[in-house]
Write a structure and sequence with these properties.
The structure holds 2 protein chains of 2 kinds. Chain A is mainly α. Chain A has 7 helices and no strands. Chain A has a single domain, classed as Phosphate transport system protein phou homolog 2, domain 2 (Methane Monooxygenase Hydroxylase, Chain G, domain 1, Up-down Bundle), CATH 1.20.58.220. In chain A, α1 runs antiparallel to α4 and α2 packs antiparallel against α3. Chain A is globular, with a radius of gyration of 20 Å. Chain B starts with 6 loop residues before the first strand and ends in a 5-residue tail after the last helix. The relative contact order of chain B is 0.18. The model of chain B has no long low-confidence stretch (mean pLDDT 94). At the A-B interface, α3 of A face α8 and α10 of B.
């Protein structure tokens, strides 16, 4: 179900409209920044770009500040406006989603740090193709989640929730192939472990993108779809129509 | 869940006319045993008019006509055999402004039981007064000055005195018409706490302009708009996920 963009406007209180609009747009700004962080971290790693890795590491502070500012604004709205219904769901969803964004930021920073380690090695580590691939995959999921948020697009959010298991499968396959490298040549273990951590970080980004999508479903429909199997989720949403 | 409870009062397609004007347009709702149901809606939506139908307070208004059926424990309250005075003891009412009689605190509470013959001796009456004032959370504050005038109490105390007066005649249902709108926040909190305690014994229907109050005290919330009941549901549900756009517009403070 798609709704028009102004569902959070039209309050009698103009300043309440503005506060909610500001909260939403600040959240989307943070989302955009975090998405860039993921892409840049993967790029820094696969292109062995130390400068870019350092930049990602530093930018994480900006992500953290966004989190605090958004939480602060949300708490103010709760205290002063006592929002209800869709307004309440928006504010609560943002409070939850913002911590997922912040965690994605942390995972990006983790990847950037590992990139700095891997840059020091003299040969190209194994698994870069997989990193590029999974990185692209989870960044697309994140982008889709943010788009679903902006458009209140539940169908899109559900697609992203479903997509998570594909990322999990890619993560498993990639880890397994890395394991064979380690068995073939134990000298690569240390380096392979670093790459393994990157896989893990990216897989976590996918999980957080999936959480974001779940918050969006709650925000729009008021249905809690966390900890729900995919077929149950379909049932749950079908009942709404 | 309220669905497992017994129905105490039931309104079926109730319509109220003031002369030619239809103020309530076919409202059906049940009031369950031991529940607090809140009636909310913009001014003029009919919530107070509807509340006043539930103990026939509208009878006294010239040109007011009530159609449809309202039952209390299965009996139609508009039946000619129903004594409105007795009905108002069974379905008591607390008003917006505390309105104690210009008599002593004791007399305010004792008046109802006395005229309804609920006490056979002075001791009985004393006990009813004490129990009622205790249930209303007022006993400790007034036990040493029962003979002082009720009007000398603070606003919050006066409102609790009116509640004590209502419960002194052992009603089944208590109707409250914006009972806190003349009280400060602390007195409001005391009355709200009292509402919760009383709900273990009585059914309570409360009209309130404060949505936060409805959210705090009620199990179910009913939203009225232009004389119609738009939506009634569990308060949790109504305030987080209302079904109707009109309800949503009202509770979120939007242009309806």
């Amino acid at each position: 179900m798609k709704k028009d963009g102004n569902v959070y406007g039209n309050h009698i209180s103009q300043s309440f409209n503005e506060e909610l609009a500001a909260l939403k747009s600040r959240f989307l700004e943070m989302g955009g920044l975090v998405e860039t962080q993921v892409l840049q971290a993967v790029k820094a790693l696969t292109e062995r770009d130390a400068e870019l890795a350092n930049l990602v590491r530093d930018e994480d502070k900006v992500v953290d500040r966004y989190e605090m500012k958004i939480d602060d604004a949300a708490i103010h709205i709760l205290a002063r406006r006592q929002p209800t219904a869709r307004d309440l769901r928006l504010v609560v969803s943002i409070i939850k989603a913002v911590s997922d964004l912040e965690r994605i930021g942390d995972e990006s920073k983790k990847i950037a740090k590992l990139a700095l380690q891997l840059v020091e090695g003299d040969k190209t580590p194994n698994g870069l193709t997989e990193i590029r691939h999974i990185g692209q995959h989870v960044a697309t999921m994140l982008n889709g989640a943010l788009e679903a948020f902006a458009r209140l697009d539940v169908e899109k959010a559900v697609e992203i929730i479903k997509e998570d298991k594909n990322v999990d499968a890619e993560y498993k396959t990639a880890s397994r192939s890395l394991m064979t490298y380690m068995m073939e040549d134990p000298r690569t273990i240390s380096e392979c472990m670093s790459v393994m951590w990157v896989f893990r970080a990216l897989e976590r980004v996918g999980d957080h993108a999936c959480n974001l999508a779940e918050h969006i479903v709650y925000m729009v429909e008021g249905e809690d779809v966390r900890h729900t199997k995919i077929d149950q989720l379909n049932e749950q949403l079908k009942r709404l129509d | 869940m309220s669905t497992n409870k017994t129905v105490r009062m039931s309104a079926n397609d109730v319509r109220v006319f003031y002369g030619d004007k239809e103020a309530i347009k076919g409202v059906s709702v049940d009031i369950m045993e031991n529940e607090v149901i809140a009636f909310i809606g913009p001014s003029g939506c009919g919530k107070s008019t509807f509340l006043r139908c539930l103990n026939r307070m509208n009878d006294t208004i010239e040109g007011c006509r009530v159609e449809g059926e309202i039952t209390l424990d299965g009996n139609n309250i508009y039946d000619s055999r129903m004594d409105p005075v007795l009905l108002r003891a069974r379905v008591g009412m607390v008003f917006q402004r505390p309105n104690p009689f210009p008599k002593s605190i004791y007399e305010n509470v004792a008046y109802g039981p006395r005229i309804h013959g609920l006490a056979s001796s002075k001791r009985d009456l004393d006990e009813i007064v004490e129990v009622s004032l205790s249930k209303a959370g007022l006993w400790d504050e007034v036990k040493d000055r029962l003979m002082e005038p009720g009007t000398g109490l603070s606003g919050g105390q006066q409102q609790r005195l009116c509640i004590a007066r209502t419960i002194a005649v052992s009603p089944e249902v208590i109707l409250m018409d914006e009972p806190c709108s003349a009280l400060d926040p602390i007195a409001t909190a005391t009355v709200e706490e009292l509402i919760e305690e009383l709900s273990s014994q009585f059914s309570i229907a409360i009209v309130t302009h404060s949505m936060q109050q409805a959210a705090r005290v009620s199990n179910r919330t009913a939203y009225f708009h232009l004389g119609k009941l738009i939506e009634v549901g569990d308060t949790d549900e109504v305030f987080t996920k209302p079904k109707n756009e009109l309800t949503e517009a009202y509770i979120t403070g939007r242009f309806g």
